[in-house]
Amino acid sequence: MKLYYAATNDYADESSVGFANTWTVLAFANKRDRDRWVAAQTDLASRAIRKNDVKKYVDAPPPFSGLARVIDHGAAWCAAYRPAIGLVTVDQPGLGYTRLERA
Question: Is 10 in contact with 18 (CB distance < 8 Å)?
Fold first, then answer.
């Protein structure tokens, strides 16, 4: 399944892109949903990104830790980022998370 990604910053607003370490990457099931979500945002930080750019916004997992970049499909953040299907984070693959394919 091909996914589309967008980056946003938790502290961004109409006049600022926020802080360098507060980026969030969202996964979308289709390009239309992603592009509509990005267009609806009013801050300066929200943008569509390519899969290869995810690593610029989400920290790399520590070597030999068994951790990976994964997509969290949890409900805790869903309402704020609808229609995104997941939030890209670093965690243990297979614990309810979808592993992000290598960029």
Answer: yes
